[in-house]
Amino acid sequence: MTEVSKKYGLSDVGLKKIAVKLGVPVPPRGYWAKAQNGKKPPQQPLRAWKGETTYQLSSIHAAKAALPEEKLELPAIEEAKIYEKAPDNQIDVPTSLFAPHPIISATRNAVSEHKPYRSVPVWKAGGKGMVSVEVSKSILERTLILADTFLKAAEKRGYEFSWSSENKSSHRDVLYLTLTKEKTSYRMRLRQKPGTLIVEPNSYSSSTKKSAPPPIVPTPVLQLELSDYIFGYGAKTYQDTPTKPLEKQLNTAFLWMATYPIRKTIEAAAREEESRKRQNAYELKVRPFRIRDAELKRLEKCEVDAVQFARAERLRAYADAMEKQIRISNLGKPVSSQALEPVTWIRARANWLDPLIGERWPDVDDLEGIREPSFWEC
User: Would residue 81 count as lying in a domain?
Assistant: First the structure.
């Protein structure tokens, strides 16, 4: 299940659910281990199935699986990989802040003027001309050094800096540093991992007021947040891990920034192709039903026309009988047009009802779709 599921961009659990839904037996736990040890576990037979024999997968995983694997490795992606893996392009973060970038200098000055809350001693800075940071004093210097290195590396890779609001429709003064290159744009922020506050040891003495909360500090896990500002969906967070600090992940971050729009374009093309195939399959399946509906609608119209034609024929027969009666009552004398006016009127209405003739009736047709006015509108 693990190997086959990769072909369709699914997890083994997801593929198993589909197999169960379609009545396909799946290997039980330990089946392949027994087979590799030379045993022959019993194989479940495929039962007769009368339900649906296909399963339509409509998700981003199916869109990715729709493209051949080699199409995912476009030349631009390979070029970005080669660039970030080259020894000359490896990003080394220094141990001290030397000749800081103007943005970092402005950020450091803003942080020095910030007064954090006693219960949560986090230094914050952000706005135009600065990079958004939210860290404790213990890793503030490290954060500024890392941000300075990141910005200098970004300039080397052709990124330009600007400042944007939290979202495109926001009119608030919360501005974030935005890195822009060609058709890509990313918001940048450095902060400590939220939701991991711990109580600072030996900091709450008996002399402290009972109403005052004990001081707490965040754990020293630094995060680099990159948010896509063009598509509005992609976001990536890099953070310290036990085996790899954030300083060793900057090349990986730039590789994601370079390849993300390419992969989004590939996924969009795959989704469009998948949607086109699904639409074609749908049209093929519903075509007989649409033909049936069209034929029934055509028959219904013929029935309506036949009823109208029968009404017209009855009127004509009535007009002929009326004319005959008028001539008989006139004792063979010439009949005036005034005497035959009712007959002429009935035949004209019959022609109006007859779908094969469709003669206009101005007194009726000219008022089609017009509402009759009320007394108070006059």
Answer: no
The answer to whether position 105 is within a domain reads: yes
Percentage helix, strand, coil for the chain under 3-state DSSP, each rounded to 5? 50, 15, 40
Amino acid letter, 172: R
Q: Is residue 86 part of a domain?
A: no
d(CA 236, CA 215): 31
What are 12-26's pLDDT values in tens digits? 777 777 877 777 888
Check whether residue 33 and residue 162 sit in a common domain.
no
Residues 14 and 96 in one domain: no
Q: Is residue 350 in a domain?
A: no
Structural domain boundaries, residue 23: 2-43
Q: Which residues contact 342 (CB under 8 A, 6 or more apart)?
A: 322
* Chosen domain end from 240, 259, 293: 240
Q: Is 236:184 a contact under the CB 8 Å cutoff?
A: no
Quick: pLDDT tens for 295-323: 999 999 999 999 999 999 999 999 999 99
Q: Do 254 and 83 form a contact (C-beta atoms < 8 A)?
A: no
Question: Average of pLDDT values for 93-114?
Answer: 88
Answer yes or no: do 6 and 123 share one domain: no
Euclidean distance between CA atoms 346 and 121, whole angstroms: 97
Which is more confidently placed, 258 or 118? 258
Rg for the chain, CA atoms, rounded:
40
Strand 197-199 with 216-218, pairing = antiparallel
pLDDT at 78: 86
Q: Are residues 95 and 236 in the same domain?
A: yes
pLDDT at 103: 93
Question: Binning pLDDT at 50, 70 and 90, where does residue 72 land?
Answer: very low
Beta strands in the chain (DSSP E): 122-125, 132-136, 160-165, 175-181, 184-192, 197-199, 216-218, 222-228, 235-239
Q: Is the backbone of residue 129 left (phi > 0), alpha (psi -120 to 50) or beta?
A: left
Mean pLDDT of 235-258: 92
